[in-house]
Design goal:
This protein is mainly α. It folds into two domains: 7-139, no CATH class; 141-192, Arc Repressor Mutant, subunit A, CATH 1.10.10. It contains nine helices and no strands. It is elongated.
């Protein structure tokens, strides 16, 4: 986490196994939740998740961020395509959903204007932000984290947080700024 380039930029420009591993670690749980939601088998879901991540890693160097949400939309599209391909090849059995119902689900996931796509976007951003917050937290002094969390997450005033933590108000604002900067740096292109 000491590099100034975001994970996405490092993976696009000069990918290393550690960065690929971080991407896989970051996205496996999120993709698994979405695929498992429609799968009758854990094995089927795991196979699709592996295929999605394989495609992402293989094609990431060609990915170009064109607008807000490009990466999450690209990832959703790959997920839908892998689900559709596995389903058509009879390697994926939807849970308690008829063929036409599952086709409609895939079509909704593919449509960027659908409620299902909006849910994907919300859950993606919330999940990635929580994960990045956990990563950043591990690299900070407890006082810095507490100042950030209490002001930015809990909504307490900087004056109250400074008094409670024995810090100056300026130190609280600096802590908040540093944490926000790290989150923006790490999440560049992943969350918008």
């Amino acid at each position: 986490m000491e590099t100034s380039a975001s994970l996405l930029e490092r993976l696009r420009s000069s990918p290393h196994d550690a960065d690929r591993g971080q991407l896989v670690e970051l996205y496996t749980p999120l993709i698994r939740v979405w695929v498992r939601r429609y799968s009758s088998s854990q094995q089927d879901a795991d196979d699709v998740v592996q295929e999605v991540l394989s495609v992402v890693v293989r094609k990431l160097s060609a990915f170009e961020r064109q607008r807000t949400g490009s990466f999450r939309n690209w990832l959703r599209s790959i997920t839908v395509n892998c689900l559709r391909d596995s389903w058509r090849a009879n390697r994926f059995r939807p849970s308690a959903t008829g063929g036409s119902d599952f086709r409609q689900i895939l079509d909704q996931m593919e449509d960027p204007q659908s409620q299902l796509s909006e849910l994907w976007n919300q859950q993606h951003d919330q999940y990635v932000l929580r994960t990045l917050l956990d990563q950043v937290r591990r690299s900070l002094a407890d006082e810095t984290w507490q100042a950030f969390k209490r002001v930015s997450v809990d909504g307490e005033s900087a004056v109250d947080v400074a008094a409670a933590l024995g810090m100056t108000v300026n130190s609280v604002y600096i802590a908040k700024s540093r944490v926000m900067s790290k989150i923006r740096e790490l999440g560049a292109g992943l969350i918008d």
